[in-house]
Amino acid sequence: MISKEKLLEISELNLAGKIEQMEEGKIESFVQLLNSFNDDLPAYEKKIQDALTKRDFEALKKQLTNIRGILEKIYADEMAQDCKKQINSISNSKPEKIEAYMRYFMTNLFLLSADIQKAQQQTNAPASQEDSSEEKNKLIDMDILFSIKDLNIDNKVEQMNEEGFKNYIKLLDAFTEDFPNQEEKVKDALKAKNNEALAEHLSEVKNVLKNIYADEMAEECSKQIELIGKTKHEKIEAYMNYFLSSLSMLSLDIQMSLHKTGKPSTFHVEDNEEKESKTDKKILAVDDTPFFLVILKKKLQNTKYKVSCVTSGKDALKYLEKHKVDIFLLDIEMSGMNGFELAATLREKGYKQPIIFLTGNARKEYFATAMKAGATDFIIKPINKEVLLSKIRKYL
Predict the structure, then answer these.
(1) Are residues 252 and 289 located together in one domain of the fold?
(2) What average pLDDT does the segment 322-344 reach?
(3) What b/e sequence results for 195-234 when a residue is b if at least 16 CB atoms lie within 10 Å of its CB, and e otherwise?
(4) Distances in Å between the alpha carbon of 9 and those of 89, 133, 194, 209?
(5) Ranges assigned E (strand) in 206-354
(6) Is 59 exposed, middle or buried (0-12, 13-18, 19+ CB in 10 A)?
(7) How confident is the model at residue 294 (pLDDT cuts 50, 70, 90)?
(8) Does residue 250 come out as left (phi exceeding 0), alpha (psi in the -120 to 50 range) or beta?
(9) In a domain? residue 38
């Protein structure tokens, strides 16, 4: 049976405050629910696929309603809530959008299933003195942490004692946890043209940035607060879009350093038989929006990188049959095969090259899904040329 500790480690399950109060018999019943979820998932996938193929959206609603009920029983609350939203939106959404969401949703369901199975295996496996759960939770990639240019920590971390450093890591973790809520508040204030609320939310963000030593961003935030009410709303809105994008990138960089697998794998690019020049690095960019690929390619003009672009996961796999690449740039929200699925397929096929996801989402659950699929790093859309080149140089 899965231990309480391993159950609490499954981020998709909202068990904090619940599992500790369960008696032994109730825990056994809960584990049986988890096992039933794992056993029944392939059948649900087939029923959903059949409904999508026939475009029988009433049948799809029925299957999603059943899955939602299971997710609620196993306390996968956020996934259940998201499922409910999708059920309500099916009647008003285009079939292509419904299909794209279902691919993403099923990927997350199977990732949850994998986490449950992993927890069972770890519970049954003998404990290792060198690799205990307690030690794993302490892991942080200091190289990544010190490479985050927005954090001014060079002379600060060294002066912290062990307790002070732990508290700092908690502040970083809290920032990544709270950022989506702060982002939503700022966007709502912008939409309502409520300058008072916008200034209040930016002040909260500024204080958090100060606490984590993102000094330059905090200073810039202060300047923008002073300009609110004195500047045209369109100019404020344009800046805030840029600022929120920068915060998203900071959040993802911090999550990379806090990722609980220790240091990322070292990626080795195989030598081409023709012994290509080191300056002739090849990038494969995959995005189902051709216009975006044109912009991406333009940003990499006059650099030492050769960029090839395809508009689907299927075309990417076909391209790789005849060509070698040094790094992948993958959009996530694509029709057909999404970025998560493509990344997972690449890893299954043995490709060890870095995979950088292009995204506008910095939420923890999104990050976790990407990492499980094989992500190496992230770039926030809209893409900044300097950030793009910096991320590519990091791995090539």
Answers:
(1) no
(2) 93
(3) beebbebbeebbebbeebbbeebbebbeebbeebeeeeee
(4) 32, 10, 40, 28
(5) 281-286, 305-310, 327-331
(6) middle
(7) confident
(8) alpha
(9) yes
Distance of CA 384 to the CA centre of its chain: 19
Q: Which two three-digit tokens encode residue 276?
A: 């290509």
- The DSSP secondary-structure symbol of 157 reads G
Residues 102 and 191 in one domain: no
Q: Is residue 117 part of a domain?
A: yes
Least confident of 135-139, 193-197, 201-205, 210-214: 135-139
**Closest residue by Cα to residue 332 from 299, 304, 303, 363:** 363
pLDDT in tens, 239-280: 888 899 889 999 998 988 887 443 333 343 444 444 344 457
Burial class (CB in 10 A: 0-12, 13-18, 19+), 330: buried
**Torsion sign (Cα): 37, 43, 44, 45:** positive
Residue-wise pLDDT for 5-46, tens only, equals 888 888 788 888 887 777 777 888 888 888 888 888 888 888
β-sheet bridge partners, residue 306: 282
More confident residue, 367 or 142: 367
CA 229 to the chain's CA centroid: 35
What separation, in Å, do the N-terminal and C-terminal C-alpha atoms of the chain show?
45
Whether 53 and 12 map to the same domain: the answer is yes
396 secondary structure, DSSP code? -
Q: Is residue 70 part of a domain?
A: yes
Query: Which DSSP string corresponds to 52-93?
Result: HHHT-HHHHHHHHHHHHHHHHHTT-HHHHHHHHHHHHHGGGS
Range of the domain at 163: 142-258
Compute the distance between CA of residue 174 and CA of residue 160 in angstroms, rounded to an integer: 19
CATH number of the domain enclosing 321: 3.40.50.2300
Nearest-CA neighbor of 41 among 59, 66, 15, 10?
Answer: 66
